[in-house]
């Protein structure tokens, strides 16, 4: 398979038995059989088609910010689009490739005096991941500003789709169900004074840095907000702040975060998530639904 992968992308873009903890924000995860980092849309299409032809498992990693990879790793081909990270302006739009960080796109919008992406100034995920989960913060979300996207289908076909075709709702889209690989997003914004945009971003950055445990690796906010509640408040009121399993800990700074405090394994991290869910359910009768994705195999 290595030889066939290097026929459709260069050798430097194919890694064998690569530790995925090197590619996730939580610093968790076993090995990928093959980790590929294509540099063009055509290479993405060719890799998808190759996986289909060879009937080999295929997984899209994104930049690993809202993701836990299990300790057993991932079989087959894992694709990371971090090398597709360009962005540019067209009139009052910013077009960004899926591997670009959404936080960088928000700063590009600031430089262009374009309003609408301020909410994303503290979101660590990629553009592709932001569309995948309709990322949002501080009252804004991707669906508010997304105009269209370019995607590759499960069959390797390139499509241009309006935002409405992605069925964006609270922390969800139809991208996983359709099996789309996002290549590019077009954000429709509005002209505004750069000083006003910067003031909002500075305020949101202060709120984030003062409240979130950025000093440790984490997957960000672990749980979706349950209707009528706040996940962090429920966890805090369950006296779970500081609760630790192995090297994983419920943050003492923000109860909605679980941090990799001391070389945690993915198993410890997942066990702590489940413990939090069961405790909150027992105390308050509320089901905490995960916002973070868990993929990969259990260790043998």
TrEMBL record:
Name the needed cofactors.
FAD
Classification via Pfam families? FAD_binding_4 (PF01565), MurB_C (PF02873)
Enumerate the spans annotated as FAD-binding PCMH-type domain. 28-192
Provide the reaction this enzyme catalyses: UDP-N-acetyl-alpha-D-muramate + NADP(+) = UDP-N-acetyl-3-O-(1-carboxyvinyl)-alpha-D-glucosamine + NADPH + H(+)
Pathway it acts in?
A: Cell wall biogenesis; peptidoglycan biosynthesis
- Molecular function GO terms recorded: FAD binding; UDP-N-acetylmuramate dehydrogenase activity
GO process annotations (BP): cell division; cell wall organization; peptidoglycan biosynthetic process; regulation of cell shape
In short, the EC number is: 1.3.1.98
Q: What class of enzyme is it?
A: oxidoreductase
Q: Where in or outside the cell?
A: Cytoplasm
An annotated GO cellular component of this protein is:
cytosol
Keywords linked to the UniProt accession: Cell cycle, Cell division, Cell shape, Cell wall biogenesis/degradation, Cytoplasm, FAD, Flavoprotein, NADP, Oxidoreductase, Peptidoglycan synthesis
Cell wall biogenesis/degradation listed as a keyword: yes
Active site as annotated: 171, 221 (proton donor), 291
Stretches that traverse the bilayer: none
Q: What does this protein do?
A: Cell wall formation.
Task: State the family named in the UniProt similarity comment for this chain.
Answer: Belongs to the MurB family.
Entry protein name? UDP-N-acetylenolpyruvoylglucosamine reductase
UniProt source species: Virgibacillus chiguensis
Taxonomy, top ranks, is: Bacteria, Bacillati, Bacillota, Bacilli, Bacillales
């Amino acid at each position: 398979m290595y030889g066939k992968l290097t026929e459709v992308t260069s050798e430097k873009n194919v890694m064998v038995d690569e530790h995925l903890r090197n590619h996730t924000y939580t610093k968790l995860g076993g090995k990928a059989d093959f980790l590929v980092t294509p540099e063009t849309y055509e290479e993405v299409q060719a890799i998808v088609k190759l996986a289909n032809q060879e009937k080999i498992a295929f997984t899209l990693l994104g930049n690993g910010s809202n993701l836990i990879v299990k300790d057993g790793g991932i079989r087959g081909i894992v694709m990371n689009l971090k090398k597709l990270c360009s962005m540019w302006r067209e009139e009052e739009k910013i077009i960004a490739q899926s591997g670009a960080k959404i936080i960088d796109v928000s700063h590009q919008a600031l430089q262009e005096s374009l309003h609408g992406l301020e909410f994303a100034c503290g979101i660590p995920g990629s553009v592709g991941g932001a569309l995948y989960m309709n990322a949002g913060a501080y009252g804004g979300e991707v669906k508010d500003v997304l105009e269209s996207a370019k995607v590759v289908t499960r069959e390797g076909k390139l499509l241009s789709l309006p935002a409405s075709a992605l069925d964006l709702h609270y922390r969800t889209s139809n991208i996983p169900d359709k099996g789309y690989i996002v290549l590019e997003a077009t954000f429709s914004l509005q002209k505004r004074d750069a000083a006003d945009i910067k003031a909002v971003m500075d305020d949101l950055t202060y709120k984030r840095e003062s409240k979130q445990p950025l000093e440790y690796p984490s997957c960000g906010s672990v749980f979706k907000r349950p209707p009528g509640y706040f996940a962090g408040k429920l966890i805090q009121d369950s006296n779970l702040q500081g609760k630790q399993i192995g090297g994983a800990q419920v943050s003492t700074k923000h109860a909605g975060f679980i941090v990799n405090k001391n070389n945690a394994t993915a198993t410890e991290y997942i066990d702590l998530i489940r413990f939090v869910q069961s405790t909150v359910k027992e105390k308050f009768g509320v089901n905490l639904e995960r916002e973070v994705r868990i993929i990969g195999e259990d260790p043998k």
